[in-house]
Amino acid sequence: MKKISLILLFFCSTVIIYAETIDFSARTGYISGMEEEWNINYSDLNDLLPDTDSREAGPGTYELIDHILDDMQNIEDEMIDYGAIAKDIAEMIENGVFEIKTNTDEDITHVALVSTDENENLTLYLSRYYLEKEDLLTLVISSVVREFKVIYDYMNNKRFEYISANKLEEYLYILDSYYFQSRYINHAFIEKGYKVTRFEWFLSVDYKDNYLASFSNYFLGIDRDVVISGKMNLDKLINGEIEILEYLTIQYENFEKYLGLYNNTDTNEFYKEVNEITTISFLPFFLEHYTVMSQINDNEEYQKLLRQLYNLVDNEILYNNSVEEIVYSYRFAPEMRE
Is 99 helix (H, G, I), strand (E, B) or coil? Predict the structure, then answer.
């Protein structure tokens, strides 16, 4: 099975430093009020089919989906048209464009997850582990909304095959879906005073403060600042705003700066490793992009800068780190579900 919303585990900001001091007590409101408004019957959320790793969703799950789509059409956002996306998704469901099934995944980033099979058939998987917990209703709803964005983009983006095969575009695509979820959480729940999980509160605060830089570190294992900086410089080269020599020089200075920021005794080892892995994973893309390669040719000065960029990091670092373990510890942390 190929997951559309792949999370690239082997890939800073001040928010990171303060992430664990967020005042979660501010998550006011009562989940019971949420249930009353949404009129959800939890006994119907899953049918009584035998427990398997993949099964059809029960009638109550489709009822929940209907509620979510209705609510999305009432969300007012100056940047995102949630209503238009909800209408498209409702039409897709009616026309059988994708299936809805359940599984037993406990990863908090997989509460809802879209996958395709070898025939490119779409399936939205909902985790029964989370569906069966009444106090996690907001998490289920916001996760489904995020994956609706994934489905919407998949069906409307002609470049999706390119995105899936491109590490940089895939990461930006994933991050965009969490931007979508974060803004929804704020409009649908936090502004109305509903209690949300720590994971959702973290998403909302981190989006407002630093566009999910901390989330990217902790839950994706990718240093967002390194990636965005490199992407901005590449865009300048593509758009003709800078020449190739300036591009290579800027990229070298930037990547050297980022590595220097994290390679000091005052920096947490986790951040160092995330930065190094991000650099190792994404630097080749910024150097091997066709716009770059078509301009370097055999120019000795360009080749020298290219070698310096490749020499910035030791590739063996990639295989000697604990980032994957730490990222998974956050994804499965019970306190994130509180």
Answer: strand
CA angle 6, 248, 216 (to 5 degrees): 25
Query: b or e along 276-310 (b: 16 or more beta carbons within 10 Å of the residue's beta carbon)?
Result: bbbbbbbbebbbeeeebeeebeeeeebeebbeebe
CB 154 within 8 A of CB 144: no
Cα separation, 304 vs 257, in Å, equals: 19
Nearest to 125, CA basis, from 141, 142, 144, 107: 144
| Pair 88, 125: CB distance under 8 Å | no
Task: Say what the pLDDT of residue 95 is.
Answer: 93
Structure tokens at 240: 């003709």
Residue with tokens 């501010």: 26
As a whole number of angstroms, the distance between CA 215 and CA 175 comes to: 9
Those residues with Cβ within 8 angstroms of residue 111's Cβ, 6 or more apart along the chain or in another chain? 105, 126, 127, 130, 136, 139, 140, 143, 144
Q: What share of the chain is helix, strand, coil (3-state, %, to 5)?
A: 65, 5, 30
Distance, in Å, from the CA atom of 199 to the CA atom of 254, rounded to the nearest integer, reads 31
From CA 198, how far away is CA 102, in angstroms rounded?
A: 23
Dist. CA 6–CA 326, nearest whole Å: 18
Distance between terminal CA atoms of the chain? 31
Element (H, E) at 102: strand 98-103
pLDDT tens digits for range 218-229: 999 999 999 999
pLDDT band at 42 (very low <50, low <70, confident <90, very high): very low
Structure tokens at 100: 């809805």
Is the per-residue pLDDT at 51 higher than 50?
no
For residue 164, what are its two tokens?
């899936």
- Using DSSP, state whether 35 is helix, strand or coil: helix
**CB 72, CB 86: distance < 8 Å:** yes
Q: Which amino acid is at 14?
A: T
Q: Which helix (H) or strand (E) holds 205?
A: helix 198-210
**Digit-coded pLDDT (tens) for 262-275:** 666 666 778 878 88
Alpha-carbon Rg for the chain in angstroms: 22
